[in-house]
Amino acid sequence: MTTKRRAPRQSDVARAAGVSQSAVSRVISGDTDTARIPEETRRRILDAISELGYVPNAAARNLRNKSNRLLGVHTFESVFPHARSDFYFEFLLGIEERAEEVGYDLVLFTSTGTRDGRRRIYRDGTNRLNLADGSVLLGVATNREELARLAAEDYPFVHIGRREVPGADIPCIVPDYADAAGAIVDTLARRGHRDIAYVREPFDQESYLDRRAGYEEAVRRLGLTDRSPGARGEPNLTEEWLDDLVAGPETAVVAESVRLAEELRTGLAARGATIPGDLSVAVLEGVWPGTSAVWDCLQVPRKQIGRLAIDALVAMVEDPAQRARSVLVPCEVVPGETVADPRTD
Amino acid sequence: MTTKRRAPRQSDVARAAGVSQSAVSRVISGDTDTARIPEETRRRILDAISELGYVPNAAARNLRNKSNRLLGVHTFESVFPHARSDFYFEFLLGIEERAEEVGYDLVLFTSTGTRDGRRRIYRDGTNRLNLADGSVLLGVATNREELARLAAEDYPFVHIGRREVPGADIPCIVPDYADAAGAIVDTLARRGHRDIAYVREPFDQESYLDRRAGYEEAVRRLGLTDRSPGARGEPNLTEEWLDDLVAGPETAVVAESVRLAEELRTGLAARGATIPGDLSVAVLEGVWPGTSAVWDCLQVPRKQIGRLAIDALVAMVEDPAQRARSVLVPCEVVPGETVADPRTD
DNA sequence: TTGAAAGCGGTACCAC
DNA sequence: GTGGTACCGCTTTCAA
To answer: Which terminus, N or C, of chain A has the lesser number of Cβ atoms within 10 Å?
Structure first.
């Protein structure tokens, strides 16, 4: 085997072509404005380039240009192990697709893993992401400190999903849960449901806050009645509340998640009530294959969100002057088999 | 919003700490050998660093170090669109996992797409891969010219799957199809099959060549008889051949792919023959969920191959002196429901 | 038109 | 121990 030879540099090309290094640089970057290189010289240089198999050094270019057409993807948990049917996969689909379209490569930041499976952006004080011109961040276990620090550093990034951090405004691509929740209440009202209930998750992440805001607004706007503890911020889905529910005036329930809806169904079944016969149920979450029922629910356009994240990021990267803005992405409401007209008893 | 400020550099830190820039550099790279910085100075520097929020510049580092702990992944077709259940996914799983373990980040080269969905390594003469210290290549539509050029350039890379290119030896991580094919013939022979047939794909890619080599070797070694055109390199699975097969002495068939096996089954059924009642069938390919039968087949350890690819690559990258070697990865033979003892008629 | 030269931000060697 | 300094490969200004 030939011994490892040094990769050719511009100076080598220059020597071979009998010109100066800067001439080579100009030809390569196609700098036609400043200095028009005569066709003759140009040819010689180009020939030398292919002769020597010259390839520009990416690192050196970045150093000069402060850009390498590289976009980072940082997930706060490892991507692939869970990707098959979950959360990340569709986002990545859109991210990859759009990145290819706009001509950027993607860096998957994986080396920052800690033993507990969580991933960090900063490792011994250094921000790995800096390698890319900008990054898309996603993950449920978002580290808000790191987010704040990143924002303070003015590093260009977008987060998929809304994340509020005091003192920093994070550009996010977020599903419009509020709007979708409102739309779901609309469909219930349109069918004639007047008394409805709300079942909440014990989390107060932004996405749930959004759902609640949309729900409450719609209930108020439509003049519906909701006497459920869930709507007032108390945990519900207790045995007592279920008893109360089946005995009460409610004809429909809105659940924040499939998990809750499934639990609700079990509880109702135990009390001889069926869905949607006795009670309609709608879910404020995308439904995955494999759940026990075809829930009426909303659909998060994950792939589209991935694409939009790239668009937003590229905008920031290409024009650092503009501050990032968040993007609200509408969710579709998909009909299922768990909402019907109210029972008439 | 604060106006975009220049990121702090080592010289800024140095000034703030009242030391020289090289001292800063030493503290940061933890250069304890050459020059031990007194705890006092060290503190001052560290303080200045966190004060200013200094972050090392990746590009500059690469330029010096000629390494950025970045491994590339280039697929000759787009990854995600097909990834869900296919080919790429498991490889990526292993690649990501192992890269994380050894502390490298991954660059997904996506920017080189052409309108026809194919991806190229070289775009207007420049090799994007150069950005990473080394790359893993995969894809069915491997571009051999590019492979050759890459090898000629001495760029560190490994290919998943065997690829031969005249004049270059490509380091590959390859499933040991030959061995697995032999093992499958062994199991048939062990059951008492003496007359067997082979059904081939109309492709002559390396992976098929390997299967054929392993098959032929085993048939010879075990003294079995194979009079099928498939074994001699002619296309088979024609109507005539099927007629011949059901009338002939063969009690088992080895098919190169699930596709062929399925077709075979259809053809046999049309002739009133069943699998494995009349004829045993084994497949020289991993079987995906969703096929019509539980074929006896081999299993390509995709995830493991991904991990091994990273190991091989890292070895090349960290010691450029050593020439890359290919790695043969054993495949398991998994029993199904399509191989039985030979019919005794 | 073309070349010389000054950096981009770090690293590492070499005197002091 | 510490600071000065050459250089990594490329881009861009400035003279010639």
So the answer is: C
Alpha helices in A157-205 (DSSP H): 177-191
Tokens 């090898």 correspond to B151
**Tell me: the pLDDT tens digits for A21-62?**
988 988 887 765 556 778 888 888 888 888 888 888 888 888
Q: Kindly list the residues from chain B whose CB atom is less than 8 angstroms away from the CB atom of residue A1.
A: 323
- So what's the pLDDT on residue A2? 43
- A303 in Cβ contact with A268 (< 8 Å): no
Partners of B108 on chain A (C-beta within 8 Å) are 96, 105-108
With beta carbons under 8 A apart, name residues in chain B contacting A103.
Answer: 111
B341: number of Cβ within 10 Å: 12
Averaged pLDDT, B160-165: 93
H/E stretch holding B158 reads strand B157-160
CA angle A77-A79-A80, nearest 5°? 140
Q: CATH classification of A10-56 is 1.10.10, yes or no?
A: no
Reported in sequence order, the residue ranges of A68-152 that DSSP labels E, i.e. its strands, are 70-75, 105-109, 122-123, 126-127, 134-138
Residue B132 in contact with residue A68, Cβ under 8 Å? no
Closest CA to A199 of A295, A292, A100, A97: A295
State how far the Cα of B131 lies from the Cα of B141, in Å rounded to an integer: 23
Q: Which residues contact B142 (CB under 8 A, 6 or more apart)?
A: B76, B159, B161, B163
Q: How confident is the model at residue A206 (pLDDT cuts 50, 70, 90)?
A: very high
Chain-wide mean pLDDT for chain B?
Answer: 87
User: For residues B99 and B164, is the Cβ–Cβ distance under 8 A?
Assistant: no
Query: In DSSP terms, which residues pair with A105 in a beta bridge?
Result: A70
From residue A199, alpha-carbon distances to A236, A255, A342 in Å are: 6, 5, 18
Question: Residues 6 or more apart from B8 whose CB is under 8 A from it?
Answer: B52, B53, B54, B55
Angstrom distances, CA of residue B234 to CA of B17, B223, B262: 78, 22, 19
Q: Where are the beta strands (DSSP E) in B76-156?
A: 105-108, 122-123, 126-127, 134-138
Show which positions of strand D are touched by protein (CB under 7 A): 1-5, 7-14
Q: In the structure encoding, which two tokens stand for residue B321, read together?
A: 């002196």
What DSSP string runs through A261-312?
A: HHHHHHHHHHTT--TTTT-EEEESSPPPTT-SS--EEEE--HHHHHHHHHHH
CA distance A328 to chain B (A): 22
Residues of CATH 3.40.50.2300 domain(s) within chain A?
Answer: 66-175+303-331, 176-299
CATH topology of domain B176-299: Rossmann fold (3.40.50)
Q: Are B226 and B241 in contact, with CB atoms under 8 Å apart?
A: no
Q: CA B123 to CA B135: how far, in whole Å?
A: 16
* DSSP strand pairing (A105-109 vs B105-108): antiparallel
Of all residues in chain B, what percent are helix, strand and coil, respectively (each to 5)?
40, 15, 40
**Where in chain B do CATH 1.10.260 domains reside?**
10-56
Q: According to the CATH classification, is domain B66-175+303-331 in 3.40.50.2300?
A: yes
Q: Where are the extended beta strands (E) located within chain A? A: 70-75, 105-109, 122-123, 126-127, 134-138, 157-160, 172-175, 196-199, 252-255, 280-283, 296-299, 327-329, 332-334
At B107-145, the pLDDT tens digits run 888 776 666 667 777 766 667 788 888 999 998 778 888
Distance CA A271, CA A198 (A): 19
Nearest CB partner across the interface for B63, out of A60, A109, A153: A60
